From TrEMBL:
It comes from the Bacteria. Residues 67-119 form the YycE-like C-terminal domain. InterPro entries: Glyas_Bleomycin-R_OHBP_Dase, YycE-like_C, YycE-like_N. This is VOC family protein. Residues 3-54 form the YycE-like N-terminal domain. It holds the Pfam family YycE-like_C.
Length: 130
C-alpha cells in the first residue's frame, strides 16, 4: 500500500521552502493548472509515502486541534541533531504540546499553515543502541 497525505494551502511556496529547505525533504514532482490546481509532491525518494500540497483559487480553511500532529523520527542522532540545528538556524519556534508525552520525547513546531509537527529522537536512540 502507498500513502499520500494531501492538503490544500494558501502558501504553496512557503510550504515547499519549509518542508524542503528546513525539514530536509525533497520535491518529488509537481503540477500546474491541473483542473485549476497547482501542486507539489514532497517526501524522500524510494519510500511508499509522500505529502501532496495543492493551491487553487479556493481559500484553504484549515480545521485542526492541538493533538493533530505529524511525528518525524530521524533515523540517527546525527540526522536528529542536523534537523534541530536547521530549525534553530531558521528561527522556527519550539512550542508546547498539549500531550505531555511529546514534550518529554520530542520538539513540537508548526509549519507555515499552523499544522503541528513533532521531531522526536526516540527511533534514532533505539537505532543507535541496536
Amino acid at each position: 500500500m502507498f500513502l499520500r497525505v494531501a492538503r490544500h494551502t494558501n502558501n504553496l511556496e512557503k510550504i515547499e521552502d519549509f518542508y524542503v529547505n528546513i525539514l530536509g525533504f525533497e520535491r518529488l514532482g509537481g503540477f500546474e493548472k491541473h483542473n485549476n490546481y497547482d501542486g507539489i509532491f514532497i517526501g524522500k525518494p524510494g519510500l511508499d509515502w509522500h505529502f501532496e500540497f495543492t493551491k487553487s483559487e479556493l481559500e484553504a480553511k484549515h480545521t485542526f486541534d492541538e493533538d493533530d500532529i505529524i511525528v518525524l523520527y530521524p533515523k540517527t542522532m546525527s540526522n536528529y541533531n542536523e534537523l534541530i540545528h536547521s530549525l534553530t538556524r531558521s528561527n522556527i519556534e519550539v512550542i508546547q504540546a498539549l500531550n505531555p508525552y511529546w514534550n518529554e520525547n520530542g520538539k513540537m513546531i508548526q509549519d507555515p499553515d499552523g499544522y503541528r509537527i513533532v521531531v522526536s529522537s526516540l527511533k534514532a536512540i533505539i537505532n543507535e543502541i541496536e
